[in-house]
Amino acid sequence: RGPAGRRLAGATGEPLQRELEHFVAGVTTRATPETDGHHGAAIVRLLATADESMRQGGARISLPTSRKRSS
Length: 71
Hints:
The protein is elongated and about 45 Å long. It is mainly alpha-helical. About 50% of the residues lie in helices and about 0% in strands. It has helices at about 15-30, 35-55.
């Protein structure tokens, strides 16, 4: 599943080329990207929490509360 739980169509082509085309289209149309900075920040919080759990020998750690996006 892709962003927002949408089912991804069978993507074809070279992944970096598709990413570049998506970026250029977003810049030229000023559209919000599929995965924006808020999504990236949530991934970083998840990875930091997983890292902390590993440092504590696999301890169960609650994920930080995600920050709400402003509309």
